[in-house]
Amino acid sequence: MTTQVALSNVGKTFPASPTTAALHALGPIDLELQRGEFFAVVGPSGCGKSTLLEIIAGLTPATQGSVEFEGRRIAGEAPDSIGVVFQEDASLPWLDVTENVAFGLRRSKLAKDERDARVRDALRLVGLSDFATSYPAQLSGGMRQRVCIARTLVMQPRLILLDEPFGALDQQTRLLMGDELLLMWRATGATVFLITHALDEATMLADRIGVMSARPGRLIDVVETNWPRERDSRIVERSEFGAITARLWKTLREESLKTIGRAVPKPAADA
Amino acid sequence: MSERRRHGGRNALLLVAALFALWQAIYWAVGDIALSSPLATLRYTAQLVTGEDFRMHLSDTMRAFAIAFVLSVVIGLLVGFWLGFDRLSGDALEPMIVTVYAIPKLTLYPILLLAFGLGLSAKVAFGVLHGTIPIILFTLGAVRNTRPILLKTAHVLKLSRPQMVRWILFPAAIPEIFTGLRVGFSLTLIGSLLAEMFASQRGLGYLLMNGIGLHNIELVMSVTLLIVVFAAAVSTLLLQVDRKLHRKG
Amino acid sequence: MKRLFLYRLAVVAGAIALLEIFCLTGVIDKITMQPPHLIARDLYRLLASGRMNGAIWKTSTNTLLALVLALGVGVVAAALLHRLRALRDTLDPLFATYYAVPVFAFYPFFIVVFGLGDLPQILIAFMLGVVAMIVNTLNGLDRVPPVLLKTGRIMRLTPIDTALRLTLPAAGPYILTGVKLAVAYAFIGIIGSEFILSRGGIGYEINFAYNNFDNATMYPLIVLILLASIAINTVLTRWEKTLLARRGAR
Ligand SMILES: Nc1ncnc2c1ncn2[C@@H]1O[C@H](COP(=O)(O)OP(=O)(O)O)[C@@H](O)[C@H]1O
Ligand SMILES: [Mg+2]
Questions:
Q1: Each residue's pLDDT tens digit, A132-186
Q2: How much is the pTM?
Q3: Residue C134 and residue C175: Cα distance in Å, rounded?
Q4: How confident is residue B14, by pLDDT bands cut at 50, 70 and 90?
């Protein structure tokens, strides 16, 4: 196991604007991602998860601490070999599915055959081969998100960041999408960093799960699942599944209560 | 919100100042032959508006405009509500009305002149031709886009149809209808003035064209200034009300 | 769909038939208007004779010139204003009340300054069209989803690629709305000013025919303008619809 991403003492404070005060949104955070692992992050909403992801992606600079990707410092520019799937639908409505997936490859010096082959493989991996000439508007939300995943995959990233990619989908679709994500993770060998608000999703998918505090978000727990690499959504039948999810919720409950503005209730006295 | 209001006011003032500065700059660049300076124009305007002649032209324009606007509102609301309720007619006619909006309506004016003769009624008809369309379109949209949940609520509350219109539909549609009235107001004014510019013996539009005939640049600029200031001022006022209604809605 | 088409057909055919009957029975007298079938015949003869080719050419080229100016200046100005927040805020009251001001009122002034040539007409048509273009392009730029721009950065697109391959297509439908309006306004501007005072063009010919009680020329030309304007508008609306349909609700 080698370290691929190293965050040390990373924090973010948004500067004050004419209408808002300065906001300490994140950190400090120390975290190392191992090459090839599946890491999930859970935390109350507004705790800085997306901000953390954007810092790793090089979309926004940290205001404190340092971020290294494969030994190089990231400073506010997106490095190659990092792919991102956002929560919002980022499919391009004026391009069909094939053109969407090939979008990032235009600039590369690949031969046309090679390019077409990559697009075909990615479409097969996300199960959209039959929709190659459809437009995003003709697809369901889950399929559009898979288009975005395929678009990321063709770039063959070594690190894939996903920001609540299934947040807008219904529960059954999410479970199935989770299965596909696991397949893709094994097939590509890439490192996956997944933000989710669904605790069961984190437990089902990840090797390790980071739990964040309310804003400013810090890591308050990191849970190892010890699942085998070959796994799918049927893992929910295992007894450890419930135990791990319960542990996550226990840690998160207090933090989540803080964000909805409630005082933390005292535990009821044992009867 | 009052913050925003103040910003809006400051921006408007800044803009007016900038436009006057631009005017003055062009005047310095071009000179007296083609342009009169802002100050000279204002002085001429002051003299113009106190004259007896001007009052006659103004009242002529205003009379045509007022009648045209009232007619536009009545026709616009009636047709708008009808097309809003009657799905088939609405779907069929709306694109046609939008198309009429895009044609150069000035070309139709000779027909109106032949039909109504040179005078007030042709001007009024032309103003109505401009003014009704936006009122119809906005009213139609407002009625049709009333949130279905409101209509269901009316149903659950067992309101009669007139009650439903009075208590639910109309209040819900008011902001959009007002937008239609605002645009209709401006377009009616534009229509009336255009009619006067093309063929008429009285009114501000006539005065403007007369200025060209007399090569009286000061007259042309003064009347243009008056028209622009009036239209912009009223439109700004209506826009404020419009925004307030939409914020509440 | 079919029902709507039939409805529209009935309205148009009904109106023409009614006019025809009124004209033939004398409810509308000959001096006011000729029956529609004669107008159609006259229009055909007028076009076949080639008598109006010069006027048609003049009006078309002037409209096109004004339109190209309005589109070019409009897009560039919108792109700049989108970045210059303060300037945009200052100009906002101007844009908000612009179409409430009779732009044609400036026409006499332009004639005084530039003389009675094509320039004042093109200027009026440009002024009418450019603001619709600016406002709609700005609206489109405002609505480009931020996530698309983030995607562009992840893919390390150059600024030009981002503008041409993400921003422009994403704002496309709104820009097209601007184009549609600018086309209509350019046409209205040219025809209108030809009509009010000019030395040539279709608007001028209509005015000339009107002054000479030449209904056999006036009505066909009016119909020609109506048909041209309806045709252009229909084509652009179609295009807009297919673009929007492909994109679904967005
Ligand atoms: N560009 C920004 N400027 C100011 N504050 C921001 C900005 N982006 C996010 N924030 C604030 O930072 C906090 C964390 O946001 P985010 O990372 O999106 O949270 P999460 O993804 O965990 O819900 C939130 O309170 C949000 O309002
Ligand atoms: Mg987030």
A1: 899 998 888 888 988 998 998 888 889 999 998 887 777 787 888 888 888 888 8
A2: 0.84
A3: 9
A4: confident
Partnered with residue A5 across adjacent β-strands are: A33, A69
Report pLDDT for A265: 57
CB of A14 shorter than 6 A to ligand 1 = yes
Alpha helices (runs of H) in chain B, residue ranges in sequence order: 2-30, 38-50, 52-85, 87-102, 109-116, 120-144, 148-156, 161-164, 170-198, 204-213, 217-248
Is the beta carbon of A215 within 6 A of some atom in ligand 1?
Answer: yes
Q: Among A47, A60, A213, A260, which residue has the most ligand 1 atoms within 8 Å of its CB, making it the best to mutate? A: A47
Q: Which of A31, A35, A37, A38 is nearest to A56 (CA)?
A: A31
Nearest to A78 among C148, C153, C170 (CB): C153
- Give pLDDT < 50 ranges for chain A: 270-271
Cβ neighbours of A80 (radius 10 Å): 13
Q: Could you identify the residue written with the tokens 């440009």?
A: C126
| CA–centroid distance, residue C148 to ligand 1 (Å) | 18
Q: Ligand 1: distance of its center to the CA of A46 in Å? A: 6
Domain of B197, in residue numbers: 56-248
Give the pLDDT band of residue B36 (cuts 50, 70, 90). Answer: confident
Is the C-beta atom of A3 inside 6 A of ligand 1? no
**B146 located within any domain:** yes
Chain C residues with beta carbon closer than 8 angstroms to that of B190: 100, 102, 104
Domains delineated in chain C = 56-246 (1.10.3720.10)
Ligand 1 pocket, A51 CB below 6 A? yes
Domain count, chain B: 1
Domains detected in chain A: 36-63+162-262 (3.40.50.300), 91-156 (no CATH)
Residue A270 has a pLDDT of 47
Closest partner residue to C247 (CB to CB) among A59, A83, A137 is A137
